[in-house]
Amino acid sequence: MIRTLEAGPFPLDFDVASTALIIIDMQRDFVLPGGFGEMLGNDTSLLLAAVEPIQRVLAAARESDMLVIHTREGHRPDLRDCPPAKLTRGGKTFIGAEGPMGRILVRGEQGHDIIPQLYPIAGEPVIDKPGKGSFHATDLQQILLRHGIKTLAVCGVTLEVCVHTTVREANDRGYECVVLSDCVASYFPEFHRVGLEMIQAQGGIFGWVSTSQAFVDALAAPASPAAGPAPGTDGVLLAVNGTLMRGLKLNPNMLAAGATFVREAATEPAYRIWTVNDDHPAMVRMTDGSGVKVALEIWSVPPEGLAGILQKEPPGLSIGKVKLDDGETVLGVLGEPALVEGQREITGYGGWRAYVAAEKVPS
Ligand code: TIU
Predict the structure, then answer these.
(1) Pocket test residue of 161, 184, 188 for ligand 1, highest count of atoms within 8 A of CB
(2) What b/e sequence results for 169-205 when a residue is b if at least 16 CB atoms lie within 10 Å of its CB, and e otherwise?
């Protein structure tokens, strides 16, 4: 269900199911005296202003069952993952030095951990990153793909360093990023102001800027299917079982066709699924009673968009009728039986998304 977030340079439509809240580096080493931030000569108290707004956003995201991801900047105790240029920047060595909260920016130390007010709860991934960006040398992208994430709501510190680097990395990877202005902070008030301007200038060159209040309000407002054709009216329901699904490689073809995600679903127990050269799956309807339920996504597609989706499909896949486990029959992508001859069957995984996640197949 689509919600609209008041934001600059224009409102951002998002779906809770394809949005993650990412909280960057709210570690003692940055926000408390005695850590990395203070050693660099900064007044850490400026960063504490972001804590309370982030707490409200975090509570609203958890209430909505939105994916919440935390990051921590830091290094192995032997510092082998810390480039010498980072270690000795400015002629002084802080990283790895003993401080009042343990060794600075070293994993496992008290100063490296997230402050108690924003501490992760069970099920929330924590990304340990050696750099400023959250994608560099981490598994963040795999996690986002696995969850079908399209939009990132971004909080944390500092705006101009780790938040900016992460937003730029994410923007280049195709994610829509909205930075919540009061949930980010900087040691330099002017960087806070200009850092936000940079994101939304030039028509939103890196993303959007909004506030904690607007985010909480958007989650509290009744959701509407307003951004796309209502299922069953203007749109045709299409069941997809492979790389057309959210966050996977042919999903842009769905979005280009004006399609909108409706729900996750499963077939009736009459189908099996193969991987065709690990490029895409082929789901085949069985007539010998050996079929099982296969995981799907149901999308609503404007009728005029269907041909474009089909034309860009790999050979051997077509659109036919698929019966769901709730008895409904919709259009869906099916593989020709000849296509799967000699290919690896992956029915045991229950679906393509579970297969590519388990086998780490690029998808
Ligand atoms: N120094 C500074 O502003 N930031 C960092 O070193 N790391 C993060 O921003 N997390």
Answers:
(1) 161
(2) bbbeeebbbbbbbbbbbbbbeebbeebbebbbeeebe
121-144 tens-digit pLDDT = 999 999 999 999 999 999 999 999
Residue 151's DSSP bridge partners are 19, 176
What spacing in Å lies between the alpha carbon of 162 and ligand 1's midpoint?
A: 6
DSSP 27: B
- Among 23, 36, 136, 168, which is best to mutate for testing ligand 1, by the most ligand atoms less than 8 A from CB? 36
Prediction pTM value: 0.66
In ligand 1, the atom with minimum distance to the C-alpha of 162 is: 9
Of 55, 17, 26, 13, nearest in space to 178 by CA: 13
R_g of the chain, CA atoms, integer Å: 23
Closest by CA to 8, choosing from 179, 160, 150, 221, is 179
